[in-house]
Amino acid sequence: METQELNELTTQLQNPSTRNAAFTKLVKGLSRPLYWHIRKMVLTHEDADDVLQNTFMKAWKALDSFRGESQINTWIYKIATNEALTFLAQQRMKNVTTSLEMEEVMINNLEADSYFSGDEAQKKLQEAILQLPEKQRLVFNMKYFSEMKYEEMSEILGTSVGALKASYHHAVKKIEAFITGND
Predict the structure, then answer these.
(1) DSSP track, the chain
(2) pTM, whole model, 2 decimals?
(3) What's the pLDDT tens digit per position in 138-171?
């Protein structure tokens, strides 16, 4: 969505008479990119759908608390990121005791996901990404797949641009090492 369109929607969201229609437009405009942002974190279609739905419900309920200090899409991405991280933490607590077990469960879920249409190279990339610490995995997905600017990532994650650049750099090096077998 373009900046001007986002600004208009933000204005409409603040007006009770145009709020419903504006939120519907916002959902239509952000559903696809938000879905893929979430999907890169939780991996399976069903989980991504659930987290996406929770994201929009939480955003709707919290619209009155949106202060406009960032763009509305950045605010919703932050909600989506937090929802996905909360979901992953709950999964970890419910199913797994160690991060190695969590990686194995996520890889198995990816392989069993009927919506995953990737080839062997894509599967290898996802396995490499799953080996990353959570923060590096998140930064890598946001930069590589969503092509977010570091400044926007900084607003969403509450981390400095320099730290994000370092996390991305380390993530890329670890992925390269995993794929080439030099880990």
Answers:
(1) --HHHHHHHHHHHTSTTTHHHHHHHHHHHHHHHHHHHHHHHH-SHHHHHHHHHHHHHHHHHTGGG--SSS-HHHHHHHHHHHHHHHHHHHHHHHH-SSHHHHHHHHHHHHHH-TT----HHHHHHHHHHHTS-HHHHHHHIIIIIS---HHHHHHHHT--HHHHHHHHHHHHHHHHHHHHT--
(2) 0.75
(3) 999 899 888 899 999 999 999 999 999 999 999 9
